[in-house]
Write a structure and sequence with these properties.
Strand content: 25-35%
Order of helices and strands: EEEHEEEEHE
Strand order of the largest sheet: 4-7-1-8
Number of domains: 1
Largest sheet: 4 strands, antiparallel
CATH architecture: 2-Layer Sandwich
Shape: globular
Helix content: 10-25%
Length: 115
């Protein structure tokens, strides 16, 4: 797959305890992205955060270990493909934040076989 230089970054902020079809929402989103043939996805677990539904700051400190840490899912592809993908998943996100930003794609490649 070749990505144009002017790509797009879809960033989804949700909670670790969010579910879809009985599995973690972040996992469901990444599987759907793969099924849709998107260029790639990465899931990041936040160390600390709060959002629109949070009354407290969720943290990874041992004294107060949260059971609902922030999760960020980043997907890069073309704007058109990401907007289409967002249309497929947005009704599964009950609470969170979604951003769509321009991204300059410097390169997108895999290791060549036989090396």
């Amino acid at each position: 797959m070749k990505l144009p230089v002017e790509g797009c970054l879809l960033r989804i902020f949700i909670g670790e305890s969010d579910k879809c079809d009985g599995k973690p929402l972040y996992e469901w989103i990444v599987v759907k992205a793969k099924e849709q043939g998107l260029a790639g996805a990465t899931v990041l677990r936040g160390m600390m955060g709060f959002g629109a539904n949070s009354r407290v700051i969720h943290t990874f400190k041992v004294i107060r270990l949260s059971e609902d840490m922030p999760i960020i899912i980043e997907l890069v592809d073309t704007r058109e493909r990401l907007e289409g993908f967002l249309g497929l998943i947005e009704d599964k996100i009950d609470a969170g934040l979604v951003t769509l930003e321009k991204a300059e794609v410097r390169f997108y490649q895999s290791k060549k076989t036989g090396q």
